[in-house]
């Protein structure tokens, strides 16, 4: 059996320890080969990020440097058009047809999956690792139309991820870390750098200050 490759997407605007520790913890607990953090170039399910895509990718590259087994993947930044997850998974699947892939997704995002582009095809391309986020969780099966998918694909056996390339759903509990990128942006937009120290890697904060990102007057929503 081949350990699955974990995939964690997001805007990472900016990346912080909540993202990094989630990836590290899921990698360890689910016996993943590695986790790739994939910044969305043009996210389809939320507003336009404050920092440009290439800046967000640069911050992810700096952030993962001290995390063995984590890596930045810039394919969505390099690819033109909306950053649809199904396209990213199709690219990865074409590169390594037999390798198990595991998409790490928050419970809130999982519940919104039916609004995603070609969402039902995602399960043919990757496994899903559903992690709880503060204030968003569900017990048992999710509501329709995900209920039928959950009933057919859910397993409590994490070893299933390495046994096939795609198709299973597993839950993974994580340590709560109440850090939000929006709060970091808001503090930086007020010029309160001290408030964000310890919330993101020093190299990322230095990059933000050097490139004058999230400065007072910029949109911090």
Structural notes for this entry:
The chain is α/β, with parallel strands linked by helices and 221 residues long. It has one domain (5-177): Rossmann fold. It is 33% helix and 14% strand. The protein has helices spanning 17-29, 53-63, 75-78, 85-95, 107-111, 146-153, 160-163, 181-189, 202-210; strands at residues 5-10, 34-39, 70-72, 101-106, 127-131, 169-172. The longest helix has 13 residues, at 17-29. The N and C termini lie far apart (44 Å).
Secondary structure: number of strands: 6
The helix tally amounts to: 9
The percent of residues in helical segments reads 25-40%
Major pleated sheet: 6 strands, parallel
Strand content: 5-15%
Give the C-level CATH assignment: Alpha Beta
Outline the low-pLDDT stretches: none
Radius of gyration: 17 Å
Question: Would you identify the CATH H-level superfamily?
Answer: HUPs
Sequence-ordered SSE layout with sheet pairings:
Elements: E1 5-10, H1 17-29, E2 34-39, H2 53-63, E3 70-72, H3 75-78, H4 85-95, E4 101-106, H5 107-111, E5 127-131, H6 146-153, H7 160-163, E6 169-172, H8 181-189, H9 202-210
Parallel strand pairs: 1-2, 1-4, 2-3, 4-5, 5-6
Keywords for this entry:
globular, Rossmann fold, six-stranded parallel sheet, 33% helix, 221 residues
